[in-house]
Amino acid sequence: MRVVLAEDQALLRDGLVRLLTAHGFEVAAAVETGPDLLDALLAERPDVAVADIRLPPTFKNEGLAAALEARRRVPGLPVLILSQHVEPLYARELLSDSAGAIGYLLKDRVSNVRSFVDALRTVAGGGTAMDPEVIGQMMARRSRDERLGSLTPREREVLAAMAEGHANAGIAARLVITEKAVSNHINTIFAKLGLLPDLDGNRRVLAVLAFLDAA
What we know:
Layout: E1 2-6, H1 10-22, E2 26-31, H2 34-44, E3 48-52, H3 62-73, E4 79-83, H4 88-95, E5 102-106, H5 113-124, E6 128-130, H6 132-141, H7 146-149, H8 153-163, H9 168-175, H10 179-192, H11 203-212
Parallel strand pairs: 1-2, 1-3, 3-4, 4-5, 5-6
Helix pairs in contact: 2-3, 8-10, 8-11, 9-10
């Protein structure tokens, strides 16, 4: 699996390259600025991009902007964004095209290597992987949505776990319920969110996006 990485801190960038290589990823390019990230994504067309939000030259949102521009030119390009802090506005901007294959993690999560690698593989496979802290903040902001308000507390727990990128087995283990119960909850969530079987796209991704996306 080929990865393009963007991180301005040399020590962290080198550490991520080593980590990814050790877990079977091929790092096609490792860059430190927003413009270099966009160039690398368009030239390499990787299986997934990993990018800090804030990159040179201005350290505002160059990483996110480059990733979004690359997704505009290469629809569905998988992108995992890393951030030092929870920034809901940037998270919603990342979700705005509703195409899936996106992730938003706090940099602290990288220290949990297994979770980070699992999240990267989930995004590369077309799924979503959102940081629990991001989910918590966005859940609070979406509490008045009528469809989401119809979900039971357990259904919201299941949907939040889906947003973090967990498969049914992982959700079952986390909530100490059976996989059949998880499947039933997910089908109910689909129905309440109006995601019928004949809809185009991955209903699991669409449910997560309905949960996280801006009003």
